[in-house]
Amino acid sequence: MTLLSSKLTLYPANWLYNAGVVGFLRVLDAMGEDVEGMLREDGGVEVDRNVFDKIDVQSLYFGENKVASIVGNSTLYRNYLQKRWKPDFEVFVRNLKHVQERGRCDICGRGFYIPQGILQNLEKSSQNLQKFINGIRKFDVRLNNILAPSLGEFPNGFWDNKNSSVVCDLCGYLLIHHHLALIDLPGRYEIFINAPSFKVMWYLNRYAREIYGREEVKRVRHLFGMSVIKIALRYNRELSRWTAMNIEVVIKHGKEVSFFSVPYRVVKLLTDRKVASVLTEIKELSVLDKILDQKFEDLINIGEKILRLGFKVVNGQRLSKNEREFINTFIKLDSNRRDLVAFAQKIFKLHAAISDVLKEEVEYDRCANL
Q1: Torsions phi, psi of 123, nearest 5?
Q2: pLDDT tens digits, residue range 84-100?
Q3: What are the pLDDT digits (tens) for 317-328?
Q4: Going along 128-226, which residue ranges are E strands?
Q5: 69, HSE (Cβ side, Cα atoms, 13 Å)
Q6: Closest CA to 142 of 166, 110, 175
Q7: How many CA atoms are closer than 13 Å to the CA of 199, on its beta-carbon side?
Q8: What is the pLDDT of residues 219-238, one digit of tens each?
Q9: Are 113 and 98 in contact (CB under 8 A)?
Q10: Which of 180, 244, 283, 341 could form a disulfide with 23 if both were Cys (CB 3.0 to 4.6 A apart)?
Q11: How far apart are alpha carbons 112 and 98 in whole angstroms?
């Protein structure tokens, strides 16, 4: 008999699976579990198997403040569970602690299943358990009524919309939490910041949710940029090179799913502590846009223009209509408008920090090619 590890180690896969894991971690976090302690530096996450014994199934899935609507004709997880199968679902959740990695799964790529011997013993007291499990072992409307293929129709999915996609027992549970990881935006848009590291995803999505909750950020790119800046300052170190290359924002609007990919160079700049620190001082989305658009040299021209205008103001000269319009368009904060000279100096400081990072990148590439 194989001795199971006391922990389940999960690694990132496709965005829908990643969102399911992050959503589940949000549930554990609300339960008081130490989620930050579960996050590994290699991008994985370690979940104690015994956590499935701590989950209050009745409250979380059937109570007034349930985290997911999974019974009957629900909007997102249609017919995931029949009403009379509620006791069987609780048995299922409790026994996820026994899952073993075996077989195929098109969601996580590994396949975690409750051993058949355990299921056979459980069937003696849980008659509908096997029916329920058979139902969630394929990717259809039970696991996502919006994205999954159904009745021969193939709405935009998350990889290639195969109607034969196999789902393991653990993924059949994790996927009903994916909506908890999505951040709701105006116009019925939802976003999720996806990366090859659960640690990066956990913090980036948490910060994006916090920033959107307290600030008027209307554009996805701004929300992403501000979140990356915060994680760079919070942890006082850059994200690793392989992580920076693969960060993307998943944008969901009804059945449509699109992706906002972020160039490696942009992420590297935003995660540089000096660059992030100056951007935090500046606090202007127009300046952040220049970095997101990789128009770094524009900062010099803009800085020089603002400096000239600042000197005019200091010398008591009146700004023209066009000059005032430029200031009002590019600079939104009153604190920056009140001292244009100081604001221009911050832009020069930002450009210098960016140049340092880019020089390091060129030198690294030169040495790598020797």
Answers
A1: -60, -20
A2: 999 999 999 999 999 99
A3: 999 999 999 999
A4: 183-185, 189-194
A5: 8
A6: 175
A7: 16
A8: 899 999 999 898 888 875 54
A9: no
A10: 180
A11: 9
